[in-house]
Specification:
Length: about 150
Amino acid sequence: MYHHILIPTDGSERSENAVAHGVGLAAALNAQVTILTVEAPLHSVASDPTPVVEIPGAAEFIHKFLHGKAEEYLASAAAVAAASQVSFETVHIKHEHCFAAIIETAEARGCDLIVMSSHRRSGISAVLLGSVTLKVLTHSNIPVLVHRS
């Protein structure tokens, strides 16, 4: 049925639940897994005309922090896959649009299913922030399983 499952993670509890579900599905199907985290490029908004990235050492500090968090999310998901004895790889990329990175990674790696969580935003936050899951659902030609917990 499915042979290669992409599981994006942002380290949230809901995302971790989707990782567990996706890995469990992969184990049942003897499928391999690609675990993905997407790091958005650094943009700063401040009332001071000096951008944060021009403060000596600030950009490097923020990059290391974000990179460390992404690696932490991947390590946690990798531990779940390893414990289930599922063949997996981890991918950490930077991309302006998270939904596009998910779809592009799934296509590039030959994934035939994307398993991801939904943060269930509603109201104004859904309008302003949008939903990565909804964008993946509407733009992907690859089947998407949305795990709601």
